[in-house]
Design goal:
The chain is of the alpha/beta class. The protein has two domains: 271 residues, Queuine tRNA-ribosyltransferase-like (TIM Barrel), CATH 3.20.20; 93 residues, no CATH class. The strands form five sheets. It has an eight-stranded parallel beta barrel with strand order 4-5-6-10-11-12-13-14, surrounded by four helices. The chain has a three-stranded antiparallel beta sheet with strand order 1-2-3. It is globular, with a radius of gyration of 21 Å. The termini are far apart. The structure holds zinc ion (ZN). Zinc ion binds next to helix 13. The site of zinc ion has 8 residues, from helix 13.
Length: 393
């Protein structure tokens, strides 16, 4: 299913075949939290911005509309009219980050809904059943993501439990995939490496889960407060202990620079809310660095967000017009910015794949990182503050 096409150092260029189509990696997954990308981006739009994989959040879908509703509607692909591969997270991260009064036990986690406060329970089996109902292409294992500040003793105990949970996830997924009423009987399962920033725990855990013959391996628990250098160091020591013939996924990361560095350390899959979240605030990515459309200097700018960009926003509209829409609070302004940013990320990945194909990734990485500094070094003359309006800064 996973075909390694080329390697340059640790960087991998591969193809990953699924029942919902073949994924070219390295790939950026576009985050559709509640089965929609925030900023009024439709499934149809995803085709225009060259999205390969959609990521949806199990915890949110479980609470609303309910995974039973999605199951009765024929699974998430049919529900959101999407024929691309979809990855669902396990719900674990949201259970740990959004819920109050959570209690972690061997069987799973007791917590309260962030919507109405009612009592809920989720363990490995529940997470697998919910994801099987949703019928995503790739399901993620249920794990605990310990705080970046947790001590060695706690992280060791947590990682051991995550390994026991992973075995339970695998057994339950196998059982669910064998049932006649399961929508996607070929659902894949990715395990997640944890261990915070402790080298010994990360390596030991990577070795243990590698023996479990999973469909793919994620590196989790990063981008939760550690420095970029600590994150790159964890990747340096972990990916060499993960199977080369399986996809790797760095969860929740990151900036274009983070992605370029992580590809160089052997990562295939990425996801991050930055392009959509930043886009909704007029913060845009270009090959020459960031621009903030709220800046006064774009008021009379009739150029597209990025010259040469072929996204639906740049093909037709000017910086000045989109800036006006954002300031007027028009949904269209946010939508155009999100479309540009996701297109930028999807095409950055295409450029990365082309560089790997051509065997010149190191040079490509260096040139791309250098080019991105150009706009970032320009000091903004005015900033727009939602509460205070325009101010000199
Ligand atoms: Zn564009």
């Amino acid at each position: 299913m996973y075909k390694l096409l080329k390697k340059e150092g640790m960087a991998k260029r591969a193809e990953f075949e699924t029942v919902h189509g073949t994924i070219q990696t390295p790939v950026f997954m576009n985050v559709a939290t509640v089965a929609a990308i925030k900023g009024a981006v439709s499934t149809e739009d995803l085709e225009q911005i060259d999205t390969q994989v959609v990521l949806s959040n199990t915890y949110h879908l479980h609470l609303r509309p309910g995974d039973d509703v999605i199951y009765k509607m024929g699974g998430l692909h049919k529900f959101m009219s999407c024929n691309k591969p979809i990855l669902t997270d396990s719900g674990g991260f949201q259970v740990f980050s959004l819920s109050e009064n959570r209690k972690i036990k061997e069987e799973g986690v007791y917590f309260r809904s962030h919507i109405d406060g009612h009592k809920l329970f989720m363990g490995p089996e529940e997470s697998m059943r919910i994801q099987s109902h949703i019928a995503s292409t790739i399901a993620m294992a249920f794990d605990e993501c310990p705080s970046a500040r947790a001590d060695h003793e706690y992280v060791k105990m947590s990682v051991d439990r995550t390994t026991r949970w992973l075995k339970r996830c695998q057994d339950e997924m196998n059982r669910l995939n064998s049932l006649p009423d399961t929508i996607n009987k070929n659902q894949l399962l990715f395990g997640i490496n944890q261990g915070a920033i402790f080298e010994d725990l990360r390596i030991e855990h990577a070795k243990r889960i590698s023996e479990m013959e999973l469909d793919g391996y994620a590196v989790g628990g990063l981008a939760v407060g550690e420095t970029h250098e600590e994150m790159y160091h964890v990747l340096d020591i972990v990916t060499e202990h993960l199977p080369e013939n399986k996809p790797t996924y760095l969860m929740g990361v990151g900036t274009p620079a983070n992605i370029l560095e992580a590809v160089d350390r052997g990562i295939d899959f990425f996801d991050c809310v930055y392009p959509s979240r930043n886009g909704r605030h007029g913060h845009l990515y270009t090959k020459r660095g960031h621009i903030n459309l709220m800046n006064a200097k774009y008021e009379l700018d009739d150029r597209p967000i990025e010259e040469g960009c072929n996204c639906p926003a740049c093909r037709r509209y000017s910086r000045g017009y989109i800036r006006h829409l954002l300031k007027a609070g028009e949904m269209l302004g946010m939508r155009l910015c999100v479309l540009h940013n996701l297109y930028f990320y999807n095409h950055l990945m295409e450029d990365i794949r082309n560089a790997l194909d051509a065997g010149c990734y190191k040079a490509f990485k260096k040139n791309t990182l250098n080019a991105m500094l150009e706009y970032d070094s320009e000091e903004p003359t005015e900033r727009y503050d939602i509460a205070k309006g325009w101010k000199k800064g």
